[in-house]
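Lesson 9: reading folded outputs for more than one chain in a single document. The general rule is that every protein is listed as its sequence immediately followed by its structure tokens, and records are never interleaved. Here is the first one.
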Amino acid sequence: MTASSPAPASTDGKGLARGQLGLIGSTVMGLASTAPVYSLVATLGFVITAVGVQAPIAFIVAFVPMLFIAFAYRELNRAVPDCGTTFTWATKAFGPWVGWLGGWGVAVAGIIVLANLAQIAGIYFWLLIGQQELSENTVVVTITGVVFIAAMVYVSYRGLEIGERLQNVLLGVQYLALVLFVVFAFGSVILGDAPDATAVSIEWFNPFGFTSFDGFTEAVLLALFIYWGWDTCLALNEETKDPKRIPGQAALLSILVLMFTYVAVAVAAIAYAGPDALADQDDVFLVVKDALFGPWAWLLVLAVLISAVSSTQTTVLPTARGTLAMAIYKALPARFGMVHPRYRTPGFSTLIMGVVAIVYYVGMTFISENLLADSIYSLGLAIAFYYAVTGYACVWYFRRELFSSASNVFYKFLFPLLGAVLLTFAFVKSAIDMFDPEYGYTVLLGVGGVFVLGVGSLLLGVVLAAVWAAFPGSRPFFRGESLNAATPVLVPEDPEDVARSIDGGRA
């Protein structure tokens, strides 16, 4: 195999490296993709604004549809452990057009969030070294963000093994900071040193205690999307030891860990500082870091920086593998299907993802930082779209066996369907809210710029699919010949012997 041709059909699947991740490594990738520290920094203050001390139950309620969709991913992955995930599964369930748009949803979400993560990494890098003025300089922050994207693309290009080792360290630092935050916050409350100690109450966990429906939906929608990213471990299935079992387990484990993390930090923050001090804060950690950590306050700044950088690398991984799969099945030009002959990574797709993310980030920044901010706010639409498509695809793909056992009723029918319906509601509710010209920072075509960018980015996928469908190379895909419900997919066979992963494979 050469670097200029797609991977052949063989026991090696698409030519990706095999046996790189075990359960621990796969879970680390899923957790790192969500950027837990940054997700809390960016969201917790606004969730508290919406529902006050009931922020913990908002995180728990938002966890439910994510858990349901994770079951859909697990069941589909057991049947078809393909790195194309949503693209491959939706194509087999609903045909080429829905599958192509599902794959586009994954790609567009990755590109938009990479711009956001790069900006955060640029800002917090200069804050970490005490350069407040440079952290507010758009040119300096943008150049710094581009450097971080390029560095993480290089790590992804070189191979999954080095990426896993890096993520073990980066995620460890994030969780060290979060554990210390919770311990210090509760310690200060117990010792009477908290600035505005608030007694923890069972009412914080009462799902029927919300006083405003609008506040409830706003908080849950905010909380819902900070779980996004756990599906990275599914996109790495072909490079995982036991690809039919471990990725699905890692997805479920990632979501459970995230739920406990978010709830613990929310409870600790409110108990320490009270809801009023944290409401409407862009960065809740900046509000309390000096009083809580003292001379070690820099650790929280470092954790936010690491969270953004870590998620940058793990966001490149699934988007590149998604476009690799699309190319293998003729849904994209063949060059996207190139696998590096030495590193056995989707080399061309990885580099293209990095270039597109950099161009998007730089372009949107210098056109309008407000436009960049609104594009990030619109991200939830793409996430809800492709997660919901995956849920519906699970139900339809397994439709002939849904009621053959109690297990199938729950895991292939009820949970995936409920998750998809809840995410469809989230999509519609978010789109309605975004339509308001007062939503976000910009107004485009007389409506909210967030709505135009969010819906427009999804509709752009329809245009691109139609353009590619006009090329002769696309015909096998759009005719349903290269990938359909009956055709076998290019995934590794189940060998008796494969290389052990760093963490022991079947950990």
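And here is the second record, again sequence then tokens.
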Amino acid sequence: MSILILTACIAFLIIQIAWLKINPFIAFIITALLAGLFLGLPIETLSQTVQKGLGEMLGSITLIIVFGTCIGKLTVSSGAANVIAKTVMGWTGKKYVRLGLMITGFIVGIPLFYSVGFVLLVPLIFSVAHQFKLSKVYLGIPMLASLSVAHGFLPPHPSPMALSSILNADIGLVLVYGIIIAIPTIFIAGLLFSNLLKNIKTESDHEILNVEEVVNEGKKPSFSLSLFSALFPVFALTLTSILPMISKNETLVNICKTVGEPSMIMLISLLICTYTLGIRMNRSITSVMDDYAVAIKDVALIVLIVGGAGGLKEVMIVSGVNETIVATLTQINIHPYLLAWMMAAIIRVCVGSATAAGLMTASVLLPLLQTTGLDPNLLVLSVGAGSLMCSHVNDPSFWMFKEYFNISLKDTFKSWTVMESLVSVLGIIFVFILNSIIH
């Protein structure tokens, strides 16, 4: 009965978001309260339970997401993202132009939110397409595949960060494993798949090119400084995760544990970027802080949605429904990674939001970790891969792609939807391959 109640609550959550168009944060809170009520939690403690879950979730990821957003904003406004893009494109030239766009998308996509990276890089795709007289979709898919993979697989993006927190994964290892899986995934789903899209043309000469990039008009950072500043969180998280595994020096291990806390690394990265991309580029501290204020305002809703998912998770734990789920799932003859992927994929198709799909799935799967000895880092990536499945008309990114590239609905399905589905399927395949290698 408890599983039926939970299933009904998740279905109601999907209806609220997809059909009734209720804000996901409000939908999560309503669902958490209803789930607690029907699962028999004392009504006098129900509100405190939801608040506890929300607070614990926000306490673990708010600093990381906020600092990461600020770094991404400064990377754009300082011109660093533009410098990275132009430099990589200069290296690859016309012959390997799609490879250059793919690499650019991956580098820029790590510190930037998907929508920000999309709006920043689409004018670059159009410019290159005009210069080389090539199809915009043919050129754009490799770059957008990179952005999508970074959004679904790699910290410090909100979904991987929240999944890592819920499933008690090591963020550094999630990042390392995610990059290992991401490289072959974007090569196949982006570079190779786009070879089939050469003949997709825009419906008219109309193009959305009036996207203004607000960039510092003064001194621009060099390529090496731009790359170092944008990717410092990646380098630091990777280093502090790997060093304790290869060194037995107790002092070094303790330093890595302290400095390697994701919130600490993101704060250090933010301070470094404030100097390298702000003060050193002759920008006033007030101007940099104004950028940060805009970035924090933009990410506030995402942080609240993640917190709402934490409230639902706490209700499940306190009610004991998680134990019932474990007893049921362990009887199903399907690998937990594949089960996680399938659940996330189904919810993604229903809801449209990759972040919401990942959070709903992780809350349900948490108990499996205590009974099956799964690698939580690979479970995060399994859920992340499933959450990217089959983007269609209920996903805002689907419409962004269609309208910016000005193609028909049919061609949008043939290109964008198929690419996202390929990323999802390849992601879970490479999770199993990596699992067989490291375990």
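What the second record shows: Residues 205-216 have pLDDT under 50 and may be disordered.
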